[in-house]
Each structure stands twice: as structure tokens, then as C-alpha cells.
Amino acid sequence: MLTNILSFFRDNDKLLLHSLLYTTTITLSALVISRYFKSRSWSKLKASPFYKPMEGKVCIITGANSGIGYETAKELAKLKATVVLGCRSMIRGQEALEKLKKEVQDGQIVLMELNLASFDSIKNFAKNVMKQYPKIHVLINNAGVSVPIKEKLTTKEGYEVHFGINHVGHFLLTNLLIERIQKSSTDMEQTKVVIVGSSLMDRGTIDFDNLNGEKGFVQKGHSNPAYCNSKLMNYYFGAELYLKYADKGVDVSVVCPGWCYTNLFRHADIKFYQKVMIFPIAMMYMRSANQGAQSVVHCAISPNQTKHFPPIFRDFAPYIPKHEYNDEVSKKLWDVTAKLTSIQ
């Protein structure tokens, strides 16, 4: 019996191999074709009626030395905007600056140091920006971190790193610049604040007794709970900022750039076999950093014409998250964070 089975495989090995190659080819071709048509919805920036030259416009981007921040800076520089790169590492920032100037030779790009894990650095950055630029037209809060919660990293002021950088740091920076941004608007054109969020906000929670991770975090699957919480805070921060300033000339958007191939999740503990398993999904849904940046830039140059609220967007359109907006949570989070940052 065993001899017959082995003989069958020896005699039919070519047929089996051809069948395997045929199936693999068909599967990969289907994935490539499906991705092609799906990716077209991620790269529609140049088709926007608002895709126009931005000479004289000052745009600030946090975390601009790599990933979505870098690509956002490049796209805005192509429109001839003055782009300020806010970077924690001046070495990596300088490398990004030199690379950008080679790619966009006529762009006006400036590098400034910004460490969102330090209130002093944030205040110095805001002071230097306002000293150099009488007007600020666009602020893009892009910088973010996602590190294993077991490392228990904190900011200079002692805040849990995801809460401190992704939410508190950007809250402080925005409020230091918001008056200048507001005064830079005109009756004909609003200024913009864009907050880079994530659909992972739907996995987040806001526990006012555990904002700083005092009680620890419950890890479910591979999602970083502290990161997810911070993205939910970004959502509420954007919503409250919109309510406070939309009628004062400042348009606010929270934008999910989609699942992008960047170094944000470089610390994620994903085994090799798991990477193999998610490869087909990644082929369908993972975007390049530039494709993710397209939605960010679109929000930076396009008005919220439909007054969509909460003002969250994805793929060039209003986005409805699974999380149900709570006005009380929104206001309380603002008040708590304002107290932490001494913002009036």
C-alpha cells in the first residue's frame, strides 16, 4: 500500500507541481488586480479641486522626518508651501531635510527641533515658530509613538508615553499656536488643524481614573491598548477643538490614513509565521506612506464643506467610527488635559 502511494507521488510530481504553481499564480494575480483597483481610492489627491499652489502658506508638521509625516511634507512642498518640520532628532531631521530638498528642489522647507515628550521643548518650538512666522495656515499633528507597554516609558513630565506624546504633547502645542492660527484665517479662507488619528480608536477606552496608566493596561491580541486609547483621545481632542474654533476661522479635521507601511509599529512583537499569515491581507489593505499621506494632505487643503461632525475623515470622505461620540467625555478630557498643561 505504502509503495503504491509513494509511486503515485513520484509519477505525478510534475502534475502536482504544475497545479501548485497554477493555483499560486492565479491567487497572486487576483490579489494584485484587486489591490490595484482598491489603491486607486487611496491616491486621489491631485484630483481634488483644492489641489492648488500654496505660495505664502506656512504649514507645520510634527514627526516629519519619516513615514507619513515625511510624505506629507513632500506633497505640501510640491505645492510650494513653506513647510516646517518639527522633529525630535535633529540628526534624522537634517537627513530628511536634505532628502526632501533633493526631491522637491524649489520647496521652502525648514527644520526645527520639537520633542513632544518635553513641555519645555514644545514651548520653545512654539515660541520659535511664532517668532519666525507672523502667520500659520496649517498645523498637522502627525507625530506618534507605539511601544510595548511593558517598557513603561514616560515623558519628561512623567506621563505614560502614549498619553504624553500622542495626546498631551499635541494638545499643548496646538493650544500654544491656536491664536496665531486663528488670526491667520480670512473671511475667504479658513486655516487648518489636522490631527492624524486611526481607526484603532475603536479599540480604545477613556478611563479618567487610568489616563496615565496608573492601573495598567489590558492587552488584547496584538493591539497596543495605550496606543488605541491615545488615538481615541485624538478623536475627542479634534472634536472639541472643532466646536471651539470652527466658527472662529479654524477648520479642524481628524484623519485616519489607513493601515500604512511605516516604522510606527516597529516594536510590535509579530512572529514570522504570523507575518506569513497576514501577507495576503497586507497585499490587499496595506498602503505606502505616501498613499496614507494623501488623505492627510487632502484634509489640510480641503474645507469641511458638509460640516461633518465629529470631523473625522478617511479615504477623502467623512468617516463614521464604531465608537459613539460622547459630549461629556469630550468636554471632560479637554478640561483635564488643559489642567495638566496649564492651558487656560
Quick structural gist:
The protein has ten helices and eight strands. The chain is α/β, with parallel strands linked by helices and 344 residues long.
Describe the structure.
Helix 3 packs across helix 9. The protein has about 350 residues and is an alpha/beta fold. It is globular, with a radius of gyration of 23 Å. The chain contains ten helices and eight strands. Strands 3-2-1-4-5-6-7-8 form an eight-stranded mixed β-sheet, sandwiched between helices. The protein has a single domain, classed as NAD(P)-binding Rossmann-like Domain (Rossmann fold, 3-Layer(aba) Sandwich). Helices cover about 45% and strands about 10% of the residues.
Structural class: alpha/beta
Reported for the largest beta sheet, the result is: 8 strands, mixed
Radius of gyration: 23 Å
Sequence of strands across the biggest β-sheet: 3-2-1-4-5-6-7-8
Order of SSEs, N→C? HHEHEHEHEHEHEHHEEH
CATH 2nd-level architecture: 3-Layer(aba) Sandwich
Helix content: 40-55%
CATH class: Alpha Beta
Contiguous runs where pLDDT drops below 50 for at least 5 residues: none
Shape: globular
CATH superfamily: NAD(P)-binding Rossmann-like Domain
Tally of DSSP β-strands? 8
Distance between the termini: 84 Å
Number of helices: 10
Average of per-residue pLDDT values: 86
**Can you tell me the CATH topology?**
Rossmann fold
Keywords: Membrane, Oxidoreductase, Transmembrane, Transmembrane helix
InterPro entries: NAD(P)-bd_dom_sf, SDR_fam
Protein name: Retinol dehydrogenase 12-like isoform X5
Pfam family, one: adh_short
